[in-house]
Amino acid sequence: MQAEVIANGDEITSGRILDTNSQWLSIRLEDLGIRVMYHTCVGDDLQAMVAVFRQAIERSDVVVTTGGLGPTADDLTREALANVTGRQLIELPEALEHVRRFFAQRQRPMPERNRIQAAFPVGSEMIRNPNGTAPGIAMTIPREDRSPCHFFCLPGIPSEVYEMWPEVEERLRKIGAGKEYILHRDIKCFGAGESQVESMLPDLIRRGNDPLVGINASKNTIILRISTKGPNRQACEEKILPTVEIIQQCLGDLIFGYDEEELQDVVLARLSELGKTLAIVETDTSGMVADWLYQSKAQSQGKPFRGGIVLASEDSVHRIVGSPSASSGQPVPSDRQGLTVLLASHVRTLFGADIGLAVSSLKPTELSRVVSFAVGVVSGETSFQQEIRFGSHPDFVRLTMGKHMLNTLRLWLKGKLTS
Question: Hey, what domains does the chain have and what are their CATH numbers?
Answer without folding.
Answer: 2-174 (3.40.980.10), 181-258 (3.30.70.2860), 263-413 (3.90.950.20)
